[in-house]
Amino acid sequence: MSAEAERKRPGRPRGASDTRERILKCARDLFARNGLDKTSIRAVAAAAGVDPALVHHYYGTKQQLFAAAIEAPVNPMEIIRSMQDTPVEELGHKLPSVIVPLWDSEAGQGFIATLRSLLAGSEVGLIRSFLQDVIATEIGPRVDNPPGTGRIRVQFVASQLVGIVVARYILELEPIRSLSAEQIVETIGPNLQRYLTGELPGLV
Amino acid sequence: MSAEAERKRPGRPRGASDTRERILKCARDLFARNGLDKTSIRAVAAAAGVDPALVHHYYGTKQQLFAAAIEAPVNPMEIIRSMQDTPVEELGHKLPSVIVPLWDSEAGQGFIATLRSLLAGSEVGLIRSFLQDVIATEIGPRVDNPPGTGRIRVQFVASQLVGIVVARYILELEPIRSLSAEQIVETIGPNLQRYLTGELPGLV
């Protein structure tokens, strides 16, 4: 190998990995903004300033690119586990104070994209299963008072959280979109807490 | 009538219904892009290549055209008008008690379907306009305390209502899906009321 090639070698992988990252970032942006159906490989390639063939080369089909784009930055179970020691009376505040900043982060964009596309498609069962099997099963029993209400309490919490996702990130309603994460938490926290531990006469 | 005309007849109504559909599609595009306030009947007519009088003939007022565009089972302005005499302190309960049964009705299904596809696509501006131009503009001033909070109070209300649409009709979470409309109203009503007239220290 020539000295010339030798010098270039360390640079090549780094350049390639930058490009890969850039493609993924553009894909996240476009999927989050336009959803899965209306985002083409061609559009992602254009945004990243590369040939569509390179996008295919790195990520395969659009579905595979999407799968890569939504890779959850944090394991949901880790979040749930991190609240194991939070008293139930504080969960209404704790939950959004952990989750909203995550959604606000760049990594959170993948989740928004997923939710959007799943909401429209036939794979809506993925979110349902996530909410019913993961969230309600883990947190429900902790707020199961009166007996049998745990699951539904958590579902009302989920409904408000999903509503914030839609209003803040998908519809981008102003001023909800520009509030700080803390302002969102302060505003919805007491309502989530009521769902978790308040009197819900309608459900008994 | 000649055999010729006889054969053509079944085609004529189809032509009219094509025009109707084209007008509605153009209206959707324009409402989504420019919002309700900045879209005129004249602009919709121009985009569809028809006379404004024809748009009025098919769809009535701009508000009614908008209602058709979002497949609302009832003109939203009529719902809002029906709450004009409801004291602000009762709106949190009144609002869902009017809206949830509508969503539950067969006519509501078209609206849910539209919402679903709008959430996923690039025409998300249609819902944004509905919430910002119609709901926040009409109800916001009634709950504007402290000054400047009216719009955002209504947006938090909207976030919870949208969350119910997602949980109950799109994700079909059980048991939220099987609750009666009254149970939904009893459960979310106090939370909506807090958004409308409660202390929201995070926002001041």
How would you describe this protein?
The structure is a homodimer of 204-residue chains. The first copy, chain A, is an all-alpha fold and 204 residues long. Chain A folds into two domains: 3-69, Arc Repressor Mutant, subunit A (Orthogonal Bundle), CATH 1.10.10.60; 76-199, Tetracycline Repressor, domain 2 (Orthogonal Bundle), CATH 1.10.357. Helices cover 69% and strands 0% of the residues of chain A. The first copy, chain A, is built from eleven helices and no strands. In chain A, α7 (91-104) packs across α8, α9 (125-139) packs across α10 and α10 (150-170) runs antiparallel to α11 (181-197). Residues 1-12 of chain A have low confidence and may be disordered. At the A-B interface, α8, α9, α10 and α11 of A face α8, α9, α10 and α11 of B.
Key structural traits:
homodimer, 204 residues, mainly alpha, Arc Repressor Mutant, subunit A, Tetracycline Repressor, domain 2, 2 domains, 11 helices, 69% helix, disordered N terminus
| SS-based class of chain A | mainly alpha
Oligomer: homodimer
Shape of chain A: elongated
- Could you give a short account of the major beta sheet of chain A? none
Which series of helices and strands of chain A comes N to C? HHHHHHHHHHH
